[in-house]
Amino acid sequence: MVVSPVSPILCFFSIYIPSFASPIAPHTNLSLSLVLVLSPLYTSLPFMGAIDVAAIAKTEGESMVKREEERMGEAEYMKGVRHLCDTGVTKVPNRYILPAPDRPHIVRCGDSTNSHNLKLPIIDLSLLHTPKRAMALEALSMACKEYGFFQVVNHGIPSEVIEDMIDVSKRFFGMPYDEREKYMSSDLRSPVRYGTSFNQIKDRVFCWRDFLKLSCQPLESVLPFWPSSPADMREKTSAYANGMKSLFKELMSAILESLGVSMNALSEFDDGSHLMVVNCFPPCPEPNLTLGMPPHSDYGFLTLLLQDQVAGLQVQYKDEWVTIDPVPGAFVVNIGDHLEIFSNGIYKSILHRVLVNSLQNRISIASLHSMPVEKVISPAAELVSESSPKRYMDTDFTTFLKYISSTEFKKKNFLESRKLTRTMDQTTEGQLC
Ligand code: OGA
Ligand code: NI
């Protein structure tokens, strides 16, 4: 029996600041051939003695040539940054250069003596099965309120499963472009999507990232669509995806308990959406000019992030960007927009971004989890009372898609748009702020 892959597949799980994300002009073959035809005419003008005209024409000619270069580059940029690096770039092309205010200020990223590095709370999950459970839940609750991010250790995912996932991801991005290209798709509903930047059709400034997005729900139906090379990709990745699903459910059970919310919600995650994003950030010749991922918040309940030993993730903490040093064997977990809504704002979905560096390739695997896409997310009944009114409107995936396609969304705008003021709560609930 042929089972159709997941209903709507969440590839828009993250919300990005698009101060540098807007549509690029479409290119036509006509404009390209016009440049080619006109260029010789301009270069011959100086010999006609028309100095002023020639100077203007020369400038125009140069800019047309430049535009042509950009257009030729454009096709190359669409192939991704791995491909760009393979061509031997020594400078960051304009397409990737952020406006000055959006650039990172890199202060020796990865140096643990650096005050910009943050030690996230580390939650020892093995304590959840001991008499110290209450203490572990308290630490978890504090981390979710104060940082929106934490790391987990003793999580029960075998180190072999983790190492195999990193290893197969490296081998996937190490394959020739022709192999990777097979999985490129502009169809947001495709269960497998290879691409670059955030939204390569829309981004005005590209990010220094290539990605492979794999929908994981339901696993047996989507598996046949996943890459067949490297040969062990499906086997290693599905073992990892299964591990992430059960870790997510264990974490959600602890989080519901820490919030004092009924465990009934837990079953909603059994068939919940699950998207895996394998990120590759190649070394970048000028890492101060660009970002691996722009500031964004994640859309779902929780994101479980596996990073290799190369630092790059930064989170916003007390209005500063701080680097999260990788802890061997740990997962970084962060609260997504859905959990902020569900917890009625008690737990926070925090902006984060990725720096690149000039020396090392970086691999990360983000597993994004939520309830099924058709499910409406609203603040949990137990967390709403007269003294603590509902702070967010009910939210579903369709509203989110409508929102991002109708607005130039910024930072955490979507979440902001779901917020209710006290007055609105009483009077105009259900409308956008
Ligand atoms: C993401 C993400 C961080 C990283 O994929 O949404 O935030 O360090 N990744 O790769
Ligand atoms: Ni993210």
Automatic annotation (TrEMBL):
<dbReference type="InterPro" id="IPR027443">
    <property type="entry name" value="IPNS-like_sf"/>
</dbReference>
<feature type="domain" description="Fe2OG dioxygenase">
    <location>
        <begin position="272"/>
        <end position="371"/>
    </location>
</feature>
<dbReference type="InterPro" id="IPR044861">
    <property type="entry name" value="IPNS-like_FE2OG_OXY"/>
</dbReference>
<dbReference type="InterPro" id="IPR026992">
    <property type="entry name" value="DIOX_N"/>
</dbReference>
<comment type="function">
    <text>Involved in the regulation of shoot development and salicylic acid (SA) homeostasis.</text>
</comment>
<comment type="similarity">
    <text>Belongs to the iron/ascorbate-dependent oxidoreductase family.</text>
</comment>
<keyword id="KW-0479">Metal-binding</keyword>
<dbReference type="Pfam" id="PF14226">
    <property type="entry name" value="DIOX_N"/>
</dbReference>
<dbReference type="InterPro" id="IPR050295">
    <property type="entry name" value="Plant_2OG-oxidoreductases"/>
</dbReference>
<keyword id="KW-0408">Iron</keyword>
<keyword id="KW-0539">Nucleus</keyword>
<keyword id="KW-0963">Cytoplasm</keyword>
<protein>
    <submittedName>
        <fullName>2-oxoglutarate (2OG) and Fe(II)-dependent oxygenase superfamily protein</fullName>
    </submittedName>
</protein>
<dbReference type="GO" id="GO:0005634">
    <property type="term" value="C:nucleus"/>
</dbReference>
<dbReference type="InterPro" id="IPR005123">
    <property type="entry name" value="Oxoglu/Fe-dep_dioxygenase_dom"/>
</dbReference>
<keyword id="KW-0223">Dioxygenase</keyword>
<dbReference type="GO" id="GO:0046872">
    <property type="term" value="F:metal ion binding"/>
</dbReference>
<dbReference type="GO" id="GO:0051213">
    <property type="term" value="F:dioxygenase activity"/>
</dbReference>
<dbReference type="GO" id="GO:0005737">
    <property type="term" value="C:cytoplasm"/>
</dbReference>
<dbReference type="Pfam" id="PF03171">
    <property type="entry name" value="2OG-FeII_Oxy"/>
</dbReference>
<keyword id="KW-0560">Oxidoreductase</keyword>
